[in-house]
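Go through this pair.

…
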Amino acid sequence: MGAYRSSVAEDRERYPLFGAATANITPCAFWPYAPAEPPVPVDDDGPRNILLVQNLRNVPTPHIGGKMLRQKFTDRSRLLSVDDSGHGSYVLSGNPCALNTTTRYLVTGEMPVKDTLCPAK
């Protein structure tokens, strides 16, 4: 716990805008109780209709995380990468490709045939 506090303090000093937040972890890391259910494995076993929507420049959830999740899900998912920044890729981004592709998926269940890059608007 001391190392954790020290790391937060150090990052707060080095990166005054976001340091403490990015070095921070959730209280659950030290939760003294066992989970009510076992962790769910992230793998290629499960529904075959997962659409991952990810901006290329998203500081809170970097694009590499979407790519890594796509690798874990293998053929049961598609990655829709949007050439944009920020955290909202769907309605708030105003990107027609992201809006149309995601809406089609939500309404019909149709996923792109392959991973797709939506160009900047």
About this structure: The chain is about 35% helix and 15% strand.
